Amino acid sequence: MSDYQPPYPPPSRPDRPPPLNTAPLSTAPPGAAPSWSATSPVPAPAPSWSATVPPAPRIQTAPPSARIVARRPIKGASAVLLPFNDDATINWPAFEAHLVHTVHAGLIPAVNMDTGFGALLTPAQRAYALHIAASNAPNGFIAGAHVTDAPGALFAFDAYRTELARITQAGGTPIIFPSYGLARISDDELVAAHAAFGRDVDAFLAFELSTAFHPAGRIFSLDVFAALLEIPSLRGLKHSSLDRVQEWDRLALRDARRADFLVLTGNDLAIDMVIYGSDYLLGLSTFSPEAFAARDAAWAAGDEPRFWALNDVLQYLGRLAFRPPVPGYRHDAAMFLAQRGWLASDATHPSSPTRPDSDRALLADIATTLDTLLT
Predict the structure, then answer these.
(1) What is the C-alpha to C-alpha distance for residues 35 and 91, in angstroms, rounded to an integer?
(2) ∠ CA(297), CA(137), CA(178), 5° rounding?
(3) 206 has which bridge partners?
(4) At what angle do helices 304-321 and 289-301 cross, to 10 degrees?
(5) Which of 81, 218, 277, 301 could form an S-S bond across to 183 if both were Cys, CB 3.0 to 4.6 Å?
(6) Is the dihedral of CA 210, 215, 220, 225 positive or negative?
(7) What percent of the residues of the chain are helix, what percent strand, and what percent coil, each to the nearest 5?
(8) Which ranges of 229-303 would DSSP assign to H, the alpha helix?
(9) Interior/surface letters 230-267, b for 16+ CB within 10 angstroms, e for the rest
């Protein structure tokens, strides 16, 4: 073993953090406009140390049906679609309007996520999205912390720290977005890096993402998830494996170890995970933030017929939009919003896959059904 000590030593077991119900996701002052210049990623040297992630405790899980909690308040966050014009430029006024729409519906907006083409934007474009969110989301917002790299890249530890600082200064809660360098480090290094991030900021979120969404995605082991629960400023984690069983396992471990930790489902193919104890950060909710808010309110009120009526239609929409190639859902979202008169164009980022025109009739029918349920 070398004498090198990594910049992010493994964490010790901390005291329990304050409950999220009594503390905001971020303690940074809201509304602060970002002021910074972009910097290129700064690769951290590969750490060499012998600490290991301890195995997660064995949890005796009850049948999933036993997890259902009636009338549970649901915390909803929605990744905001970034609209484009026909000439491939970003439609910033439409983005701002849709973010305000999301806030007025009662959901927490999330910017620079996959739905907002965060990995494909320039640093200046991501900064402007942060500025718009900070100016229009008085109750806080989430933003993807991105490091642009390529296959084989080293883990850019310092570049991530810079991104977390920028988002926090803007008043947002950062979520660690995948990168090729982050995907290649060991489980031990992954936990230690998150612990170091947690010493820099008051609140942040981790992110497990299937490679169906991003080629640098990574689903953590349950041992890693257990270790991440010990980081007090890590307030939650978005889980996007598209696998119910893996999410149920995380919920069981969360409930046993740290009940206030947010498990934010990113499973657009199983949006009913909220009845089992997950909250959510979804791209699907950008289609109709008000329909998701109404569904959530129905569950909290004990109005299960209304909850399931809305959930069934929204899940049908999710199955349609999130079929392979999964990133094509963003074009479906743009078509859906344009049909409703909320966007002037259904164009998306030039690098994003598109859907066939045959989707339009299906989307229009879903919109009509949702309108009927919401009136």
Answers:
(1) 22
(2) 90
(3) 237
(4) 150
(5) 218
(6) negative
(7) 45, 10, 45
(8) 244-257, 289-301
(9) bbbbbbbbbbbbbebebbbbbbbbbeebbeebbbbbbb
pTM of this structure: 0.84
Give the model's confidence band at 340: pLDDT under 50 very low, under 70 low, under 90 confident, else very high. very high
Radius of gyration for the alpha carbons in the chain, expressed in angstroms and rounded: 20
Q: Give residues with Cβ within 8 angstroms of 354, minimum separation 6.
A: 328, 331, 348
Contacts of 103 (CB under 8 A, 6+ apart): 109, 136, 137, 138, 139
> Nearest-CA neighbor of 316 among 288, 349, 352?
288
Q: Which two tokens stand for residue 121?
A: 């934007």
* Residue 66 C-alpha from the chain's centroid: 27
Beta pairing partners, 174: 143
Distance separating alpha carbons of residues 198 and 8, to the nearest angstrom: 10
Type of residue found at 193: A
Higher pLDDT, 45 or 358: 358
Residue 248 has pLDDT above 60, yes or no: yes
Centroid of chain to Cα 312:
22
Structure tokens at 367: 């919109």
Residues with Cβ within 8 Å of 356's Cβ and at least 6 positions away in sequence, in order, are none
35-64 pLDDT, tens digit per residue, is 222 333 333 444 432 345 666 555 656 788
Neighbours of 323 (CB within 10 A): 14
Q: Would you call 137 helix, strand, or coil by DSSP? A: coil
Structural contact between residues 168 and 202, judged by C-beta atoms closer than 8 angstroms: yes
Q: What is the secondary structure of 80-109 as a DSSP string?
A: PP--B-TTS-B-HHHHHHHHHHHHHHTPEE
Q: What is the 3-state secondary structure (H, E, C) of 174-225?
A: EEECCCHHHHHCCHHHHHHHHHHHHHHCCCEEEEEECCCCCCCCCCCCHHHH
Record the tokens describing residue 5, joined without a space.
Answer: 């000590």
Question: Which of 42, 39, 68, 50 is closest to 9 using CA atoms?
Answer: 50
